User: What shape does this take?
Amino acid sequence: MIQGVIFDLDGVLVSTDELHYQAWKMLAGELGIHNFTKKDNERQRGISRMASLEVLLEKSTRKFSAEEKEEMAEQKNNYYKELLKSLTPDSLLPGAKETLVYLRSKGIRTAVGSASKNAPEILKRIGLLPLLDQVSCGLDTTKSKPDPEVFLVAARKLGLPAQVCLVAEDSAAGIQAAKAGHMTSLAVGPLYQQLGGTWQARDLSAVENWEAIISCPISWKMPEKTNCM
Ligand code: B16
Ligand code: MG
Assistant: This one.
């Protein structure tokens, strides 16, 4: 029986992916990189800021020092933080708030497990903090997804063993991280059918049988790609 659900933030509860894309595009322009596309941005989904920078720099012919990379990542984050000011509770993805309310009414504990160091600010802006028991984010971890650290920290903060937690994710790195942490997973977002989650749905509003997901006996050998729409 599932006792806790850990939600990834960007792409699961709120769509900040477009803002990340715009911020990386601004940095790319400054670096003279004019062919950074949405497809490149898809590869940055769920991975850390520095790993995302490396994806962008694949498009550059120049080599940069570690110090220059730190500066670039900081500049991108400044652009991103400026864009985050546009977020409001209306920026929530379909089903996000309703799902949290429903799970809590069933006694399920809720947490965020996000790679983002901006997660606390984002959660404040979108008004979800009162519906979450715990937050684990890039500020709590040293390793990024697909390492399970951020989800294991979330489970520990919830006071639950990892095996009774389910992870809701929109990225390949996140689903791999859930598996590495011996957690079952719900894949959502544009790539939901390709991620290999234990369960899958287009978005949180498309999950029809939370009862079945919650009451599923704990087993690491559960069938993959189980449709729950
Ligand atoms: P920051 P998630 C991730 O959020 C984003 O999907 C990813 O694109 C970003 O690079 C990462 O957070 C780090 O974000 O620069 O704000 O620390 O999907 O794990 O909620
Ligand atoms: Mg995500």
User: Anything to note?
Assistant: DSSP finds nine helices and seven strands in the chain. Residues 8-11, 20, 44-49, 52, 77, 114-118, 138, 171 surround 1,6-di-O-phosphono-beta-D-glucopyranose (ligand 1) (CB under 6 Å).
